[in-house]
């Protein structure tokens, strides 16, 4: 696939496959194309070519995309309303909507907050809510753009734990991040981007991470 902005190629060509059950870290220095690639995978920006899902359908149909700033995604006046909004939009039966919202909030640990105003939540909880509202739609792949960028150290660990837990449910996760040191030990695969292309696609080898860090002028510390 390729992405163009006003005739300039920003991404690609990239030919890639994603598997369920896999946590993929999308790495790359600023401007390397992570966000644009992730948005193309989600079908949020136009792209040429195609990435096909294992069931033969376009990949974007199987994805749920979580924006970097969780506040931009808040649509409900309570946590519960926020999670059911998308489910109502896809026209599910009331019973199914409530079942899914309940299940999702249990998984993400927000059930006790279901009547809270989303804006009253902590940063980590807001991020969990943004993830919940997408998860409730039951995507096969969860696409996360810098999910810890707006969070302090404590909340980052909470999100890491949630992601570890979600991984066990069999969902595929593609996570664009600068916080390599937080996620590398739970990643199954690393995709390293540079100038809109994939420079490395494989296991989270320390050698690759060290090179990536040092290229950015930062010393790699485990
Ligand atoms: P990253 O997420 O890795 O920082 P981006 O995907 O945001 O990278 O950006 C990749 C490239 O695309 C950059 O050169 C950026 O300037 C360019 N770009 C991003 N968004 C737009 C846009 N809306 N119009 C034109 N160029 C853009």
TrEMBL record:
GO annotations of cellular component type: ATP-binding cassette (ABC) transporter complex
> Molecular function (GO) terms listed?
ATP binding; ATP hydrolysis activity; ATPase-coupled transmembrane transporter activity
Q: Which PROSITE patterns match?
A: ABC_TRANSPORTER_1, ABC_TRANSPORTER_2
**CDD domains linked:** ABC_cobalt_CbiO_domain1 (cd03225)
Ordered alphabetically, the record's keywords are: ATP-binding, Nucleotide-binding, Transport
Q: Which InterPro entries match?
A: AAA+_ATPase, ABC_transporter-like_ATP-bd, ABC_transporter-like_CS, ABC_transpr_CbiO/EcfA_su, ECF_ABC_transporter_ATP-bd, P-loop_NTPase
Per UniProt, residues of the ABC transporter domain are 1-220
- State the family it belongs to: Belongs to the ABC transporter superfamily.
Q: What is this protein called?
A: ABC-type cobalt transport system, ATPase component
- Species of origin reads Thermosipho africanus (strain TCF52B)
Lineage of origin: Bacteria, Thermotogati, Thermotogota, Thermotogae, Thermotogales
């Amino acid at each position: 696939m390729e992405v163009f902005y006003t005739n300039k190629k920003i991404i690609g060509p990239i030919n890639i496959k994603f598997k369920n059950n896999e946590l993929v870290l999308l790495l790359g220095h600023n401007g390397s194309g992570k966000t644009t690639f992730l948005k193309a995978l989600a079908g949020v920006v136009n792209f040429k070519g195609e990435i096909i899902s294992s069931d033969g359908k376009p990949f974007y149909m199987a994805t749920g995309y979580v924006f970097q700033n969780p506040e931009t995604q808040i649509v409900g006046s309570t946590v519960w309303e926020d999670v059911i909004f998308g489910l109502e939009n896809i026209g599910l039966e009331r019973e199914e909507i409530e079942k899914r919202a309940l299940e999702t909030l249990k998984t993400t640990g927000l059930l006790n907050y279901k009547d809270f105003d989303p804006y009253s939540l902590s940063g980590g909880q807001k991020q969990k809510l943004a993830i919940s509202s997408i998860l409730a739609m039951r995507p096969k792949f969860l696409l996360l753009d810098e999910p810890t960028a707006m969070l302090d150290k404590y909340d980052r660990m909470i999100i890491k734990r949630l992601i570890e837990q979600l991984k066990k449910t069999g969902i595929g996760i593609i996570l664009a991040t600068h916080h390599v040191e937080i996620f590398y030990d739970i990643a199954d695969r690393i995709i390293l981007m540079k100038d809109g292309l994939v420079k490395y696609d494989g296991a989270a080898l320390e050698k690759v991470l060290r090179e990536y860090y040092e290229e950015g002028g930062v010393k790699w510390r485990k």
